[in-house]
Amino acid sequence: MSERKNIDRLFQETFKDFEAEPSEIAWENIEARLEEKKNRKVIPLWFKYAGVAAIFLIGLLLITFNTGKDQFGSGASDATVNAPSDKSSKSPLKNSQNPGNPGDNVNRGLNETGPVNAITVTDDTKSANESGLPQSTKGSAQESQSGGSNASGIRQSNDDIVVYPMNKEQEKNKNGRAGKAGVSNGNASPFDNSREHYASSSKKGKHNKHHNKKTARQANLSDRDIQVAQNAGRANSGTPSETGSRNPQPGKNIEQEFKNENKIAVNENNQSGQPGQHNNQRVTETTTTSTQAIVAKTDDIKLDSTATAMAEKPNALEELQNEKESKSVAENEPKMNRWQVSPRVAPIYLSSSSEGSPIDSRFANNEKDYKTQLSYGLGVSYALNKRLSLRTGVNSLAFEYNTNNVVAKQSSVGRKQLEHVNPTVQGAFLRIENRVEGGPVELANNGLAIKEFSSSLSQKTGYFEIPVELSYKVIDKRFGIDVIGGFSTLLLNENEVLLVSSENQMQVGKANNLNATSFSTNLGIGFRYDIWKSLQVNFEPTFKYQINTYTESGNFKPYFFGLYTGLNYRF
Amino acid sequence: MSLEQLINDCRNNDRKAQEQLYKLYKSKLFAVCLKYSRNYAEAEDNFQDGFVIIFNKIGQFNFKGSFEGWMKRVMVNNVLQQYRNVTYLDMVNKDIADEDADVEIEDENVPLDFLMKIIQELPDRYRLVFNLYVIDGYPHKEIAEMMGITVGTSKSNLARARLILKEKIDNYNRHKLPSAK
Description:
The complex is a heterodimer.
Chain A (H helix, E strand, L loop, with lengths): L3 E3 H8 L10 H17 L4 H22 L7 H23 L4 H4 L2 H29 L4 H45 L9 H26 L2 H14 L3 H7 L1 H32 L1 H27 L8 H17 L6 E14 L15 E3 L2 E11 L4 E22 L11 E3 L1 H4 L2 E4 L17 E25 L2 E23 L3 E7 L5 E14 L4 E12 L11 E13 L1
Antiparallel strand pairs in A: 2-4, 2-13, 3-5, 4-5, 5-7, 5-8, 6-10, 8-9, 9-10, 9-11, 11-12, 12-13
Chain B lengths: L2 H9 L3 H22 L3 H18 L9 H18 L19 E3 L5 H10 L2 H12 L4 H8 L3 H30 L1
């Protein structure tokens, strides 16, 4: 007999003790994902990639600084990334330069700066020693101060890493779901009579899918990853105690390095003192006394600081040192790195924002047509944080544009060389000028009309482009939008001026007003779409304004627009 | 081993402990996922995602209140996260008069599988609200906060869900009755 019943109660009663068995494979999937997450935390293998990228950046900066363009002073902000390691290696060098100099131009300033440097260095040594020694032997308060800041640096980077995989995981989840939604919708499992049946019947249907998922996951764990996991297994588990025990080691190494460097610096400094004595009595008297005083002083300080090491707060220098150390540690620790490699290709549309001709001012008003060229390249990107990445890479880049409505005459009579072209042998016998419609037919010495080729001048240039850009993720979802800004260094590797007529084309020369190294400022917007968690397609329309392409441009201000399309592979 | 010990081991990423915990609670938590998801496949996905989150966030459990309740909440929140962002046209008329009115049905012996099926067939938000309110006993205010909707929307979604479910159950009973009697 049926009776009226509240619908809520029906459901409440039915589902009160409802339990359902998930499929057998569920745990394996969960385990695989926990395992995967663990592995992602440490990636010591990326050390070498970090090294390559660092060398790359340093090289870039050297190029930038050598050309001495003020407008690229902005590059200095990038330099700070590398600055700590540079400084630490350079300061002993600077000191070692002193012994060579005193012979000729010892001046007080130089010698003074020597010892002053030495003080800072020795001071540092001291702090490094103090923090280094007790770590292995005593474990005093001093150690916990300097060592502590080290550890915190490392820990910070660990934290970052913990964050990343989680985000990734979430992304992945979303992706997985989005991809699966379609499949699973169509797969509504029949609900039969018993619970068991319900569970098992749909289990069968899903079994394959989950199996696939799992194998895919396992495939993702390449041999390398597994090795990494083994190598780093112990250091890796992320518990505070274990990371704590791991941290002192890199810290110690660095401190030892500092010790060594500083020893050298001190030695060399002594040497710089000696030639000074030989060469210039008067100066050395003052300087040696000052250095002696300083040495005495530093000795005092050393005594003081060792005596008060327990209680003393780290001084400013020490803090600076520690900061430096933790910075360099953070930089060298690749664990927080999120690298991305992006092969890309782009049609390049060249244009000029003003009329003008870089070949010859006579052609300033001629019609130009710009050829679309393809640029290929490989980019490397490093995520500074969740939203900001630093990108660099190499692109091949080629430009070609035609200056139309010119004629070439086979006569050297009245020849005027093209302003900015060094002619080839063939080119030297040609007169290239503007075509004048209905102009008088010129006669050569022999009375015959000079042969004219109506043609166009094609200027081809090729570059290696090395961009240094920052990209900011405005939207960071499966579909993402980035804003990209930066500059590119363009290294000239192809330079041709061709005469192109309907019949043939010949090289007439090379432009002599092209800078071997030039720059462009870049601004772009990037659209990304995640195919998998580690693979994205991207499309980045980017505008690049060339800055000093020509030594003398004839008011030709080129810019180009590239539709960069490519794949991002993250690891 | 006490539950507390087990939880602590899980915090240390002890795989054995994690597996044990999983085995202890998988049936209950999978049941939750089945109710809150659109179908079996999505339930499995949500279940796995949820468990990964549980293990990652187990350090946040502060031993106040029931651990099972905490895990359930993580599961539910994960599912909500999945479906909350799904936009669909909210065609609900605000003028449903008796939102809190009882919806009565014939109490035939309706099998669980059928009830599960019709719950899963509900539009996402109706399903979530119905589950949260009716089966898991959350008040409307809390539901509204969890789902980022207003209390009014929560109530009207619930009323809609009830009506849809009632209709399906009535239908089921009608088809069944002649053969039963």
